[in-house]
Amino acid sequence: MTRWTPRRWRVERRRGTGSVFRAIKALSLLVALLTVVFWTHAFYRFSGITDQNWEEADAIFTPATKTDSTIAAAQVRVTLNTSPRGKSLHEVILPSPASKPQLRETFKEQPMSSGDWVSTDTYLRTKLKLFLYSAYLDNRLAVPVVRVIGAYASVNGAQVSCRLEYASGEASVVAATKKTINENWKLKYGAAFFLCPYSDDSDNPPPVRVRLKETYELQWSPSIPIWPLETRPGEATGRFAVCVKPLHYKYDRVSWLAEFVEFNRIVGVDRFFFYNHSIGSNVDRLLRVYMEKGVVTSLPWNLDIKSQKEIRTEGLFAALNDCVYRSMNHFDYVLVLDLDEFAVPRKDDSLPAMVTRLKRAAPRTMSYVLLNSFFYLYWENDTTAYGALPETAPLEIPYLLTQFKTRRSKKVFRVGSRSKYIVRPVAAVEVGNHVVWRYLGEHFTLICSCA
């Protein structure tokens, strides 16, 4: 006789309890099944629907009466006949197989002013906007492209499409190639080129305006004009132009700006390109004077991206590249400078004379890198020129950097670190703040201490 221990007895008792639970569960399922059968039978009995008149049911298709500008839907109404003594009419509304939503592209409204930044709204999928500033017909490459200068995700992002619009009213959509401009620090946004190929022949006039969008989205940006790189009638021409990064933080050092412009005019600069993000009232008045004289081109620069947090310094690389393309075939050379920098020829009286001399020695040179050295503002002022400190009675001499800061640091920075450059615009493809990043075809760069 087997002797059950208390432990084994407890195990056996649990096993018996499990069998009871399984029986109760099976009984519950049976009751539920019988309930479904009962109510199904009652439905057919009281509605008067039989197998025969179900098979003979009429199908009446009626289009939907509710539509909107985005989705055009249709419905199918299936009417089931009742028996002659039926008391009710039952309808089942089903979606039509052909009633897929017809999604339409949208075109964002054009801004009130032209010549400034435009953008899409934030796309839901990528949480990004597409920004456009300018566009140029670049037929220097093997495949002609519309080169759009704008801003987008510095890393990754979505595929982008271009809508090229023609004077005839026609439009074509092509895939864009995005090239993020260097020195973006991998912030959320970076200045970028969008290259949109087009047919360049006499039978097909080039497009005149362009829009961008993320390829799998519906919303297009506002359109911007496309400018040819050839000389445009009515625009300034000359030998030398200066490009300056966007003026910001309500820049209002009017005496230093006047000194910058006048010094560079003395050494041979014909035109200055400024991008106005925010300036003070004094600088605004001075720029208007220079614009009336045909010395300055001031362009709006209202880029709605957080500077230094989401993009480098007001998107300066978009401004510098726009300046180079804007100057192409209008000026022989472009000099990129900040407002506190001066390129001083050492052996020549002017920048054009310096470049002419260097060009004779190296005819295929397309750019000249100027090495940088500091004249520190916190060092004492040199009073040799005027015999007095700046902005003091009785002379009230303006505080001019070139007159009072004459001591130079011994350190000369290497190429790419604080350096500046002179470049032939027709040879440039992509420029940075300190060097030219990409050229068209074969080129030579001369690194010199000539300034």
TrEMBL record:
<keyword id="KW-0812">Transmembrane</keyword>
<dbReference type="Pfam" id="PF01697">
    <property type="entry name" value="Glyco_transf_92"/>
</dbReference>
<dbReference type="GO" id="GO:0016020">
    <property type="term" value="C:membrane"/>
</dbReference>
<keyword id="KW-0472">Membrane</keyword>
<protein>
    <recommendedName>
        <fullName>Glycosyltransferase family 92 protein</fullName>
        <ecNumber>2.4.1.-</ecNumber>
    </recommendedName>
</protein>
<keyword id="KW-0328">Glycosyltransferase</keyword>
<dbReference type="InterPro" id="IPR008166">
    <property type="entry name" value="Glyco_transf_92"/>
</dbReference>
<dbReference type="GO" id="GO:0005737">
    <property type="term" value="C:cytoplasm"/>
</dbReference>
<keyword id="KW-0808">Transferase</keyword>
<comment type="similarity">
    <text>Belongs to the glycosyltransferase 92 family.</text>
</comment>
<keyword id="KW-1133">Transmembrane helix</keyword>
<dbReference type="GO" id="GO:0016757">
    <property type="term" value="F:glycosyltransferase activity"/>
</dbReference>
